[in-house]
């Protein structure tokens, strides 16, 4: 799958490298001081890039690898293991609906259909205005409050259509 790069890159030896902000580079270097080995700072570095861009891709892996002094493959392995890091640009609000057994039994599929209809988009796609992307994801770890979804960094639990409507209205502003 080809990923669209929507930020500045530089090319070194034929490899595209993301241009990270000075704040992101500083976060990565600070993370390196907390661990005995640079490879241990990969996850904080991925979070720093995710905070800057809202997703991760190959040029970012190269940038992180260059700063940490590890291989691009080591960075990519960590990034691709954590499925909650988007690997392409997503909407302003990433709506992740849990599809695991508890949520499925309590109506997650109906919730997804309702979201698709309300937002006029399909799972894996972004609304035309760029405000929402819908994903179905494996367990979000909140089985006791199913059905639930995560929007950006916040959990929304015991969902009903009324709660979804209120949330979408709040996020649409």
Q: Give unreliable regions as ranges.
A: none
Q: What percent of residues adopt helix (DSSP H or I)? A: 40-55%
Multimer state: single chain
Total number of strands: 6
Q: What is the rounded distance between the termini?
A: 33 Å
- The averaged pLDDT comes out at 93
Structural class: alpha+beta
> What is the spatial order of strands in the main beta sheet?
4-3-5-6
Q: Which sheet architecture does the biggest sheet show?
A: 4 strands, mixed
Strand residue content = 15-25%
From the spread of the alpha carbons, the general shape counts as: elongated
Helical segment count: 7
Series of H and E elements = EEHHHHEHHEEEH
Give the radius of gyration: 18 Å
Description:
The chain contains seven helices and six strands; from the N terminus they run ββααααβααβββα. It has helices at 22-33, 42-53, 58-68, 72-81, 101-105, 108-119, 161-172, and strands at residues 9-12, 15-18, 93-98, 132-137, 149-151, 154-156. The strands form two sheets. The chain has a four-stranded mixed β-sheet, covered by helices on one side. The protein has a two-stranded antiparallel ribbon with strand order 1-2. Helix 3 packs across helix 4.
Concise synopsis of the structure shown:
This protein is α+β, with helices and mostly antiparallel strands and 173 residues long.
């Amino acid at each position: 799958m080809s990923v669209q790069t929507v930020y500045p890159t530089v090319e070194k030896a034929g490899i595209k490298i993301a241009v990270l902000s000075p704040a992101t580079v500083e976060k990565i270097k600070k993370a390196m001081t907390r661990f005995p080995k640079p490879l241990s700072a990969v996850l904080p570095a991925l979070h720093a890039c995710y905070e800057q861009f809202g997703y991760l891709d190959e040029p970012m892996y190269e940038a992180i690898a260059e700063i940490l002094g590890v291989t691009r493959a080591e960075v990519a392995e960590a990034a691709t293991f954590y499925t909650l890091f988007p690997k392409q640009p997503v909407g302003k609000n990433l709506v992740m609906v849990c599809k695991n057994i508890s949520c499925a039994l309590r109506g997650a599929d109906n919730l997804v259909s309702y979201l698709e209809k309300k937002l006029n988009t399909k799972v894996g796609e972004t609304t035309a205005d760029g405000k929402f992307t819908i994903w179905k994801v494996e367990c979000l770890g909140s089985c006791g409050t199913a059905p639930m979804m995560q929007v950006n960094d916040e959990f929304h639990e015991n969902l009903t259509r009324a709660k979804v409507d209120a949330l979408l209205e709040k996020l649409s502003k």
